[in-house]
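Task 17 of the worksheet. Students: predict the tertiary structure of the chain below and write it out as structure tokens. Keep your answer in the requested format; marks are given for formatting as well as content.
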Amino acid sequence: MKTIEKHESQVRSYSRNWPASFARARGAIQWDTEGNRYVDFFSGAGSLNYGHNEPRLKQALLDYLADDGVIHSLDMVTPARSAFLERFHEVILEPRGLDYRVQFPGPTGTNAVEAAMKLARKATGRERIVGFTNAFHGMTLGALSVTGNNMKRGGAGVLLQSGTAVPYYNYFGEEVDTTEYLDQLLEDDGSGFDLPAAVIVETLQGEGGMATASMEWLQALQEVCNRHDVLLIVDDIQAGCGRTGTFFSFEPAGIKPDIVTLSKSLSGFGLPFALTLMRPDLDVWEPGEHNGTFRGHNPAFVTGTAALDYWVGEGLTPEIDRKAARVTEVLDQLIADHPELEGERRGRGLFQGVAAGPGFAKKVTEKAFGLGLLVETSGPEDEVIKLLPPLTIDDETLEEGLQLLTKAILEVVSENDPQ
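Model answer:
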């Protein structure tokens, strides 16, 4: 820690929240250099849906490296690239009736978002992108323009003028349908609201407080977009790859976005990997018009292809649903037993949390770390305790983590109100 404090930028955050040096990891467990064991309900901010060092993925990578497979290839053709594309179409797209072209925009989620917005502008000839209150789409300038968090937006240092925020689901409460608000703005020539190229949305706002859109709201949003000839972009970077149960988080709504962004657990192994998926008629790029040095990361193709084995047929969905039901049960009971929490459970699948106030949530995550549980906060004021256990976590470790979380919450409750 002294080395980090001496040499690394002040911008670091997780090393401040969890002041330990993590040396080993397997599945849902990490160990630090002092031998302390931690149950991981963080999963690399959602980039390790299959846990740390998943054996099958690790073996596929080791075999590829041992065979001197090409590591860096930009967008040149490699067997690893072709294998991923074929497997992704076979296992993910075709069974869901989705016809998308695949773009490798660069290594991270914000690269996928930038490519999506740039493509929407090129395809429609319009400039503005509509985002939502409390959204988070990345840290580059275009992504920040449709991100709601003032602290993160302020870090840009320039005016962010290409995005416009409108109210997310239930922003004004259940009585107000915010898709009708957006529809009216687009319909009224006197609204001062320029017809946008696209609307970008998260079905579940992972960084924005875990607000979760209803399926009906998502359906209505697509109808509004279709009615006004506006493209719909679903940012599935954190909620996708099975985090909410189905591979794509929007599947239960029955919608088909025009553009989809994926990253986080796409490689399955924590390797940088991102995709921008688009309707074939939207693939209007000129060769080389959008590129990047690290858009051909073959080790990620290899592990990403191996990870798709988890999604053959019904895939992980039944197991995720079963485990998610247990998480829901524990959180709901905890909230019911302790009304002083004034808590609210949010999210779906293995992407759930408890909104209980900024000071409270932060204390819980600190207490949990001391007990041997890694769990983070969400929301513009860090007011939500956010759970991201691996999708493949075994029942025993899931129970252990839930017990540790419960203990941390109850200890903070007791400290706040000794009576």
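Marker's comment: The chain has three domains: 1-40, 58-311, 317-350+358-372+396-419. The domain at 58-311 is CATH 3.40.640.10 (Aspartate Aminotransferase; domain 2).
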